[in-house]
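call fold target=Histidine--tRNA ligase
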Amino acid sequence: MSEKKEKISAIKGMNDILPADAPLWELFENTAESVLKSYGYQKIVTPIVEETGLFARAIGAVTDIVEKEMYSFTDAMNGDLLTLRPEGTAGVVRAVVEHNMAYDGPKRLWYKGPMFRHERPQRGRYRQFFQFGAEAIGFSGPDIDAELIMLCRRLWDDIGLDEIRLELNSIGNADERQRHRADLIAYFEANIDVLDAEAKRRLHANPLRILDTKNPAMQDLVNAAPQLLSYLGEESLAHFEGLKKILDAANVQYTVNPRLVRGLDYYNRTVFEWVTDALGAQGTVCAGGRYDPLIETFGGKPTPGIGFAMGIERLIELMKAQGEPAAPGQCDVYMVHQGDEARMKAFILAERIRDAGLDVVLHCATPAGAGSFKSQMKKADASGAAFAVIIGEDEVAKDEVAVKSLRAAQGENAQQATVAFGAAVDYLVDQIVGGGGEHDCGPDCDDHHHVHRP
């Protein structure tokens, strides 16, 4: 008797996406891709692993991400310092600079994929998490800022989310932040007894981040701190007012939050967050802003940029909280069969139906056996298929199939029809697509059954 092996579990904070949740993920991803395409954004894919220095330069050496949260390691082959990407913007900008993508004009780009941060797992906040993001490179005006915000609003509408609100701020340019920083440090030094240990650690390294504290004992102090908006010069103010003017004209609701600063060093001017109260402490579902200095920092020519990133897990949680839509079925047709000859004919017909553009699940044997007609029909119904195609000994003898509707109400149309084997594909296409079996794809297409779903 073999020794029982100990189970291996997933790493803490790195989760499986199971088939039951996959339809909701597909709904979100397909909708997001469609919205981005409608605004002219093109997909870019960058490596999961980058040089550690990329993130230290882009995000900032004294940020929490770089100091405490990155998964970094030394390449055993050549000694390079490498990091699993903690966010998407740095890699996209690195690719833009490396491949001279902006030399022939501005670019609208989008990406999706896993990111990694070693932090305490919470609801909607994991160590491996998935982001959807967009970057607009080479645009300097507030109109592109507004476009990205309005793109997000369209996505929320399309996936049915209405418990999300927009918060805006401008953090100005480097010289404006420097003046504000000096006054902010002086203000906090004068109230040093109120600061907690984390705020004291950040005081001289990154005092802006103190404004984002969640410590209740510090809220009055933070609320009374000098506001960066008061330090903005004429150009920064004009940019911010221009953004608000476009959003007002487009009827986009927002709140100006002077404490919104974001945690990455590369931001300037516009910063924004889409937040919700429906997910507890993890209220930010999408965040972004302008990063005009970043491309030059990476060795490129001075080029403005702005982008956002949204956490897919948090948005999936929010979609569930607001009423998870019914999961779509696995297939259009489920093939039920009994006997060796029937099984062979089922294989042949399943391929023909797939050639016509429909999705088919063919019943296959398990260690318990092939299964009775009754047990197969239970699986057919559970699959979400619109129709079951049944082939048994009688159907083989008569060169026919039985087609049973799995979704029609009692008494609605015929519950089951007998169809000649050679006519089954056309019959199913007609039933499922409603006469959409014939089509015209042009002179090079010879598939006369291919389905074009409405």
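return ok
The two ends are 57 Å apart (CA to CA). The domain at 22-172+232-321 is CATH 3.30.930.10 (BirA Bifunctional Protein; domain 2).
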